[in-house]
Amino acid sequence: MNRNSFLRSSTFRLALLYVALFSASVLLLFAFIYWSTARYTAEQTDGAIIAEIRTLAERYETRGLPGLRRLISDRVERQRPTGKSIYLLSDTRQRTIVGNIDRWPQVDEVDGWLNFELETGGTRRGVHPARARQFQLVGGYRLLVGQDVNELKRVRLRIISSLGWGLLLTLALGLLGGMVMSRRMLHRLESINDTSQKIMDGDLGRRVPSRGSGDEFDQLADNLNRMLDQTESLMEGIRRVSDNIAHDLKTPLSRLRQRLEALSRHYSDDSIPKADLEAALQETDHLLDTFNALLKIARIESGPLRSDMQTVNLSTLAADVVELYEPLAEDKRQRLTFQSRSDPTVSGDRDMLFQAFANLIDNAIKYTPVGGIISVHCTSHDISTEFAVTDSGPGIPAEKREKVFQRFYRLDESRSTTGNGLGLSLVQAVASLHGATVSLTDAEPGLTVRFILPHPKDGALPKPVQSGPNASP
What we know:
It contains eight helices and twelve strands.
């Protein structure tokens, strides 16, 4: 599986979207957990401070200042050296009476609470955050009760750290699970795509595999296979009817030609004009050529036997085709040249390749004006071998280059010339069979047709591909 295609696949993007939504949900859940936990601990701290103030106030009411002073001293003494409670009792002149801090915090009060930094000693030396509340006693005395909330801060940080690691773990597990699910789905889809590609390449007997699990992919595979069965049956019927028509018409046409030829040889009276016989013979030959071309295309598209494939010297084959058409080019006073920059060999059917190259050169001679130039090149590249024909004719408009590969399609300008519109259709069929591509480009002036054959791997026959005017090497 190609890594880039996997990363660009819709299944992987869907997995990323699922992971993003799931992570957002987990993030919201963790945020709520942190908020509720932090709020609960803060309320517990504030509640403990308020309860301590009430206890001290009740002691002051029952036993006065000495009792309160003694109680605060006992509690300060009891929590040393690591206590977290804060006590400070001062008189009307802000002088400290008793406590474990030496001065009143110089911070503003917010909703009755003081939040300040506390310098600590002993084993907990440092600056810690503290939270306290003050209380005015009868007689002008002021009482400050609070707590060192450094532990609360550390708990909050630990909660944040734990939730952060939990979120990262969730992301990692979600991404891993999404990738595994995406790969499994992509593997099932690739099997469908591979089968579809083989069917488009001509293997109509191929079917989409199923695992027998009865899931949605198996249902899709079953439906596609039933559709392919029906399509193959219909196409086979159409091909059988077309072949039968071509065979059935070819035989009487051949007999008709023989009779016309016999008439032309044995009868010389004026009741049968010689010119009319010759015209009838030409029309009969044209019909026979058309049916022969149709039968040949049908044979090519049905796929040749492996025994037809052999190692072919493409340069020698191209030279033979050029030599065959040199007299025809000389009749139109055209200059037909051939150049081969290497001696490439390919695996293919020599007769079919010969016919395809002959059609390309024949078209070039047919549509190039008198005195024109036609050049044929055979070049070997790193991964392919190219047979190219360049002429100085009128060329083909870009918007019509795809249509000329259709059967019986002819440009308006070429309808006055002989032909049946099957030449390039046969070239395309041969190219598809050999895994080649055919491209049409401007020669300015004229047209360049490139027939590009890939080098087979380990001597294997290239997989058939689609040819067309926009194909490239």
